[in-house]
TrEMBL record:
One of its GO terms (biological process) is response to toxic substance. This is Entericidin EcnAB. The keyword Nucleotidyltransferase does not apply. Belongs to the EcnA/EcnB lipoprotein family. One of its GO terms (cellular component) is membrane. Coiled coil: none annotated. InterPro entries: Entericidin (IPR012556). Keywords: Cell membrane, Lipoprotein, Membrane, Palmitate, Signal. It comes from the Bacteria.
Length: 42
């Protein structure tokens, strides 16, 4: 029982870290796209 809980916690933690990195990368992509549009408008 303890092993199942530990495995679940480790898996959940790993997924959360991966999701944060993905969202952060997507945010940077959107920001750079916005800057490109802004530069084109000038």
């Amino acid at each position: 029982m303890t092993r199942k809980i530990l495995a679940t916690l480790l898996l959940t933690g790993s997924l959360m870290v991966a999701a944060c990195n993905t969202v952060e990368g997507a945010g940077k992509d959107v920001q750079s796209a916005g800057q490109a549009v802004e530069n084109a408008a000038n």
